[in-house]
Amino acid sequence: MAQLAFIVVGLALAGALASWVAGAWFYARTLRELSSERGQPRLAWLAVVAWPFATGRIKGAAAARAAQVNKALVAFLACLMVALAATSVATNLARVSR
User: Fold this and answer.
1) Which residue intervals of 50-96 are DSSP H helices?
2) In the predicted model, is pLDDT for residue 82 greater than 90?
């Protein structure tokens, strides 16, 4: 059982890495979209400095990209929580089985 929990840890960490890379890619695309729109250079800087506060103000095509960034962030945090829980289970099962 401990071996299975360690496998889950590895898969969750791989998922966290993949969602982090996807989030960075979507974030770069969102910033590119914001900088190409007229009248929103200040919003582009706000998105760089404080992402959560800028997402409500983003309009147009960049809003769809911002939604992808948020989904990737949620996936990253979910994978980290699964990895931490599986690590706890794995260490407890490894200790009990001895």
Assistant:
1) 51-54, 61-96
2) yes
Tell me the Cα Rg of the chain: 18
Other Cβ atoms less than 10 A from the Cβ of 64: the count is 12
Burial label for 98, CB within 10 Å (0-12, 13-18, 19+), is exposed
Residues 45-74: pLDDT tens digits? 777 778 777 777 787 778 888 889 999 999
Tokens of 46: 């706000």
Instruction: Report the alpha-carbon distance of residue 78 to residue 65 in Å, rounded.
Output: 20
Residue showing tokens 């800028």: 54
List the one residue out of 96, 17, 14, 29 whose CA is nearest residue 61. Answer: 29
Q: Using an 8 Å Cβ cutoff, are 23 and 73 in contact?
A: yes
- Cβ atoms of 69 and 9 within 8 Å: the answer is no
Angle at 11 between CA 84 and CA 86, to 5 degrees: 30
Q: What is the DSSP letter of 79?
A: H
